Amino acid sequence: MTELDGPRMEAAGGGQATALVVLLHGLGADGNDLIGLAPVWAPHLPHVAFSSPHAPFPCDMAPFGRQWFSLQVRTEEVILKGVREAAPILETFLAQELERHGLGWDRLALVGFSQGTMMSLHVAPRLKEQVAGVVGYSGALVGDDLLDGELASKPPVSLVHGEADEVVPFGAMPAAEAALAGAGIEVESLARPGLGHGIDEEGLRRGLAFLQRVLPQ
């Protein structure tokens, strides 16, 4: 099985981290993209370590970057197949990172952007051990009709999406929110007027507040 690696940032306060945030990038980027969130949030989460793995596959739509799954064919069936193939690779990485820090699953939060959000929303509720939470930016819930039958845990979720997103339609957020809430998962959402496919300052503040709430301080 492919092994993931990528940039990391240890707890800003020094010493042993009491929690871990894993940042999952979008299509065509790599771990160096979202690790940029770590120094923004770290002063407010001094006991939290950050890890930002490179997705397992080379991007097949650009001459550089990585992908969690291909988007050459964008049918629900093909995308779900891609997500399922990448899921065990991600799960193995998460387990290894927690072991590296000596932490349990309840000390882990996932933060995804775009494809990274799709991976986070698929993997987290299917883990037998419940993680602390998931922050999903500009993403979607793939295979929402399968969630009830495959649910293994109910981590809280915070969704943020730009209303002017030109890549992943804004409607993906209320659809994900409805499916997650219908499965009994605590979910909050934040719509950002005028924002395209990206993360703005208000979104960063919402993500930080959520992490401060769900992670041990």
UniProtKB/TrEMBL annotation:
Domain of life (superkingdom): Bacteria
Pfam family, one: Abhydrolase_2
Identification of the protein by name: Alpha/beta hydrolase
Family: Belongs to the AB hydrolase superfamily. AB hydrolase 2 family.
GO molecular function: hydrolase activity
Domain Phospholipase/carboxylesterase/thioesterase: 13-213
Keyword field: Hydrolase
